[in-house]
Amino acid sequence: MSQPDLTLVQVPEPNQARSRQALERLLAAGEKLLADNQFEEASVAEIARLAESSVGTFYRLLGDKDTLSLLLLQRFMQQLADKTASLRGQGGDCRDLAEGVRLLTDNYIDVYTGRRGVLRAVILRASRSAPFRDRVHQLNTHISSTACDCLAPFMDQVLHPRPRQAVSSGVHMVLGALNQHTVTGTLGDLQPEALRDEIARLLLGYLRGPR
């Protein structure tokens, strides 16, 4: 499966090295504000100050604050797509379905860790924008497809009558649980240190079916 098209906005790359450096600083400042859950309240002037830049430079390079927001979400989603794509060929290094599932869920948790602000921004944007929601759906489809490829050597251990459908559905359920855990900071009474074990059990139990 080819990489999904996650393009939300395109900003011309500055010709001058100084402007390129300023753009990177603006993106870094925006990412920090997102991570701290303060992006929505921050003004353009505050973002420029954090980036050690000027309001005029901000508008010249980005146009408006919404463009910066889309660039940050686009970059996060692309990083997630690239990270999960790298799992395609790693299933063969696992001994069985349980190890393959743990490989997947550990990688998903690694990507989500520390991303509360950006996940919240993704969810809010998806609730308001149909085009953005379509990109999220493309990303989720890509993630579930790579999971099927990763677990392909162990499909005979999946007891669901439609193994690939089960992997796809199970991965979507795991992502939903991780969204809740990341945004709210909790998943029932589950302690953070137990998250990896329980998320892996959730997916493995679904794929193996009732005993």
From TrEMBL:
It comes from the Bacteria. Residues 20-80 form the HTH tetR-type domain. Residues 43-62 bind DNA. Keywords: DNA-binding, Transcription, Transcription regulation. Transmembrane segments: none annotated. InterPro entries: Homeodomain-like_sf (IPR009057), HTH-type_TetR-like_transc_reg (IPR050109), HTH_TetR (IPR001647), TetR_C_15 (IPR041669). PANTHER family: HTH-TYPE TRANSCRIPTIONAL REGULATOR BETI (PTHR30055:SF234), HTH-TYPE TRANSCRIPTIONAL REGULATOR RUTR (PTHR30055). This is TetR/AcrR family transcriptional regulator. It comes from Microbulbifer taiwanensis.
